Amino acid sequence: MPSSSYTAFPGIAPGAAGTVVTSTGAAWTAQAIPVPVTPSRCEGRLTLSSTLPVTTADFNNITSLYYLPYLGNHVSLYSGSAWQDYTLGSSGLTLSLSGLAVNCYDVYLDWNSGSPVLGLIAWANTTTRSVTLNQQDNIYYVGSFNTRRYLGTIYCNNVGQCTDAAALRGVWNYANRINRHLLKIPAAANWTYTTVSTWRQAGGDAANQVAVVIGLDEDSLIVKAEGTCQVLGGAQYANAIGLDSASTPVSGSIGVTPYNASSSTFQAGLSAAYSGHVGIGYHYLTWLEYTAVTASSTPYVAGTTGFGLQSGLWGNCRS
User: Fold this and answer.
1) What element of type H or E holds 153?
2) CB neighbours (10 Å) of residue 120?
3) How many whole angstroms separate alpha carbon 238 and alpha carbon 65?
4) Dihedral of the CA atoms 77, 78, 79, 83 (nearest 10)?
5) What span, in angstroms and rounded, lies between the C-alpha atoms of 285 and 265?
6) DSSP single-letter state for residue 298
7) Which end of the chain, N or C, is less surrounded by CB atoms within 10 Å?
8) What three-state secondary structure class fits 113?
9) In terms of Cα–Cα distance, which of 145, 143, 169 is closest to 223?
10) Sorting pLDDT into bands at 50, 70 and 90, what band is 18?
11) pLDDT single digits (tens) 252-275
């Protein structure tokens, strides 16, 4: 038969896209070709912006969480018996954070009988889950309900509020993680430290730190403190990074210790760094300082240099 010929079936257009023609023996029918669902498909990101899946500005103390399309708009959800394809609308899904206590929370997308909704499970504390993450076909779900696909973890830094900013990365995505910068510039232009042989947060300021929340410990992060100080004759000054501590350097912290053996004052560069896995949950990394001099011979640390440059704490994480 010539390739341009076909046999027409009543009520069916030959070659209709996306259908297959079958016969019951008494009648012909056209049925849609099933589209396979890939369980790993998860084309969205948790964010504190109602329009941006990836933010570059600081979002502080936000009262709503959003799940927006990213690199596509499909998410595979388990119905309890089979994987289903869910299409995210352009405005995504929204979840109010009203009334949530200061804590970590796992965020999930529940199949909900075909009308998917976002949900939260509070942790036992900021470093320990209250329920485990389990797997259906190697895809994480929250607790005992395999219809609740795990999307990520957030940290509420105030009651009913979450922050995603350079000093606090309080939103962590399991899928589609990207590099996020960390940064804290000291509020003080300069300071001195007169307490001998005691580690403290730089400048005596509890704000001189950066913080993150992590849902699964799969990525390392890096944090570094840099600046300048004037060291008097005989003075010694040290910098380090602390992990969840304002008085003890973390194991593996690398630092530079300027020491002035002369009688004259000199200016030295400061540097301290840490790179590693900090574990799941909420963690803060502090800029620590230490002096081994008398009060009459104390280091002077510059928060802002004469060239307009600034001392500070910076780094990188994935969330």
Assistant:
1) strand 148-158
2) 16
3) 41
4) 90
5) 31
6) -
7) N
8) helix
9) 169
10) low
11) 988 866 656 566 677 777 889 999
Query: Is 140 in a helix, a strand, or coil?
Result: strand
- Above pLDDT 70, what percent of the chain? 83
Tokens of 200: 């403290």
Count of CB atoms within 10 A of residue 299's CB?
26
Contact of 77 with 255, CB cutoff 8 Å: no
The token duo for 95 is 């979840």
Name the nearest CA neighbour of 267 among 226, 292, 232: 232
Q: 299: helix, coil or strand?
A: coil
Please, which pLDDT band fits residue 64 given cuts at 50, 70 and 90? very high
Positive or negative torsion for Cα 304, 305, 309, 312: negative
**Whole-number CA gyration radius for the chain:** 28
For the chain, how far is it from start to end, CA to CA, in angstroms? 60
Structure tokens at 204: 């005596």
Q: Would you report the helix, strand and coil content of the chain in percent, each value rounded to 5?
A: 0, 50, 50
- In the chain, what are the domains? 44-175 (no CATH), 182-318 (2.60.120)
d(CA 28, CA 104): 57
CA distance 71 to 42: 9
Check pLDDT > 90 for residue 250.
yes
User: pTM for this one?
Assistant: 0.87
Q: Which tokens in the block code for residue 119?
A: 């949900």
Give backbone dihedrals phi and psi of 158, rounded to 5 degrees, phi first: -135, 165
Cα 20 to Cα 84, 88, 256, distances in angstroms: 21, 28, 71
Check residue 308 and give its pLDDT.
Answer: 65
pLDDT-derived band at 5, boundaries 50, 70, 90: very low
Residue type for position 293: V
Give the pair of three-digit tokens for residue 286.
Answer: 């502090």
